[in-house]
């Protein structure tokens, strides 16, 4: 416990240095970008070795023009970042996700994510976000996360993860905590594998439910322990569940449509099924959007054309629309896809 307490003191010092560095804007970049984030840093605290931990930095566009995230880069190979919800119209929010991989490091680790952005008028700026953790050597996850990849809802899937605690024979896991979203996708079971004077081991088994909803999942199972120094062990669970019907691309970028020019833009989406099907209807049309195609009865592949005309709507700026394509497959929910367009005056 004394070793961890000393390490905690060093973490405070290092974290202060990390935030100080993160707050210094890059040469030639404008400070406006940093002000779009509420947080300038996040401390994951004590993290088991091997674990993959993540944190969402929320960006709120307080400007009078749209902002585009050009790049998210990390100062260390142990950390990655990605932007979700780009482009960002005035008043809208987006998420920059920071993920730290702790497999190859032990002790205090502090890194910086640099987010490069540009406004619709061409102003460029950078924001720096500090992330850090204290990677423990006596708690190990193997593998570091549960990544199912792409799974079929009808087939499901199962993965196991080992949790080892060295040098503490009285260490115990008291309970598991999962969000309602995660509970709708998986069933989880935790069993003690061994207990010796040298340490304790558990096995976490996670199964994909046969009725899991189609879509992307990135959630955490939080495991509560009896250790006050590490009260919670996070386990990241990721997957993409595909139903019998899927859309490609699931996000269609239509480009720019000008009301003054009177021209429209369009793109195509493939609706593919594991067996022949017919399209029963499409929700989301209107207000400038039109969907055609899908005729011809039952087949395994339908091609839909999504068109948009800015002169048929009052909406301006970045416009995002969700479409729900219903099929005649029994028990199969509508497949969702999105289209985004820049509606100009």
Describe the structure.
There is one protein chain. The strands form five sheets. Strands 1, 3, 6, 7, 9, 11 and 12 form a seven-stranded mixed β-sheet that branches. Strands 8-14-13-10 form a four-stranded mixed β-sheet. Residues 1-29 have low confidence and may be disordered. The longest helix has 21 residues, at 2-22. Helices cover 8% and strands 59% of the residues. It is mostly beta strands. The protein has helices at 2-22, 180-185, and strands at residues 41-49, 52-60, 67-74, 79-84, 93-101, 107-119, 124-142, 146-152, 158-166, 173-177, 186-196, 199-208, 215-225, 232-242, 245-248, 251-258, 264-277, 279-283, 289-293, 299-309, 317-327, 335-344.
What is the topological layout?
Elements: H1 2-22, E1 41-49, E2 52-60, E3 67-74, E4 79-84, E5 93-101, E6 107-119, E7 124-142, E8 146-152, E9 158-166, E10 173-177, H2 180-185, E11 186-196, E12 199-208, E13 215-225, E14 232-242, E15 245-248, E16 251-258, E17 264-277, E18 279-283, E19 289-293, E20 299-309, E21 317-327, E22 335-344
Parallel strand pairs: 1-7, 8-14, 16-22
Antiparallel strand pairs: 2-5, 3-6, 4-5, 6-7, 7-9, 9-12, 10-13, 11-12, 13-14, 15-17, 17-20, 18-21, 19-20, 21-22
Order of helices and strands: HEEEEEEEEEEHEEEEEEEEEEEE
Count of DSSP helices?
2
Which segments are poorly predicted (pLDDT under 50) over 5 or more consecutive residues?
1-29
> Span from first to last CA?
64 Å
Question: Which secondary-structure class do the elements indicate?
Answer: mainly beta
The 3D shape can be described as flat
Which assembly state applies to the chains in this document? single chain
Strand content is over 45%
Radius of gyration computed on alpha carbons: 24 Å
What is the typical, i.e. mean, pLDDT?
83
Helix content percent band: under 10%
| Largest sheet properties | 7 strands, mixed
Number of strands: 22
